[in-house]
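Example record used in the benchmark description.
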Amino acid sequence: MIDTENLATLLDTLCPMFVLVDDGGRIIRVGPTLQKLRPDQPMAGKNFLDVFELVRPRAVTTISALMTLAGAKVHLKLHDTPRTALKGLIAPLPHGKGAVINLSFGISILDAVGDYALTSADFSGTDLAVELLYLVEAKSAAMEASRSLNLRLQGAMLAAEEQAFTDMLTGVKNRRAMDVFLGHLISGNSPFALMHLDLDFFKSVNDRFGHAAGDYVLQQAARIMVEETRNDDTVARIGGDEFVIIFKGLADEIIISAIAGRLIDRLQIPMVFENNTCRISASIGTALSTQFTPPKAAEVLHAADLALYEAKRNGRSRHCLYSTLVDLQRTNAATDTPSE
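Model output (structure tokens):
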């Protein structure tokens, strides 16, 4: 007949969640995994029902009654927190010398693994919990791989979308982005100012110093425009040396004229590329969305374009408001009208 010590050693390997109790219900020994649930509270020496609460069957309230449940399943909980749920199977020892109660986590195993940092080494090699743990780990790995792939795909989509709306030479928006942004502003009934800017004498820089110098000038000009605008504004390169700046929510011609003046002043400062002095300036025309009822993108763009050409006609390095052009046309029309 195997003695208690050897039996406990055997159970450590086969049933690491066992409880060995004597005939009075005192815990003689517990399996290593079970003790891991309460590493600072040795269970040996305590009364079984002081450590575990018997949930079912409810009618059993004493150790003697518990010993009569040979082969029956019982449902238990630890008395203190976390109150982990356990299932048990009771196997009485010969001659009424106590019992072995083999415990498991049942469906609460996933919570238990997380709560107590258990691994497959904490279970018997034949325990289905091991397979379940592997499945959970495999699922977690698959979900993490899927999440990582989704993040990469989202990043690639965002990068592709950003690239589709960006002028690759200067880093500002392109014409496609400008069209989309204008559409959003108009559909949302948001007021805006649209500034059409053309770099004067840019062709001369290209012809004299080459395309590398021209590219440098375009990049520096775009940088200046970004520095002179707000985060909510949009700077877009729509042609070789043509830019459009959209000022969201801005309809004050005095402020617009001040911004245009700063842009013209800064763009007139010579730019040095490979010891070559590149000189440009800027002609600017601006139209306000509030001048049209209702505003249409093509109409506002055309108005800013007309104002730009008026600025060029008057000697370049100038800013012209569409409203000024309209007033001038009205004055000319009144002057040309013959008196009766």
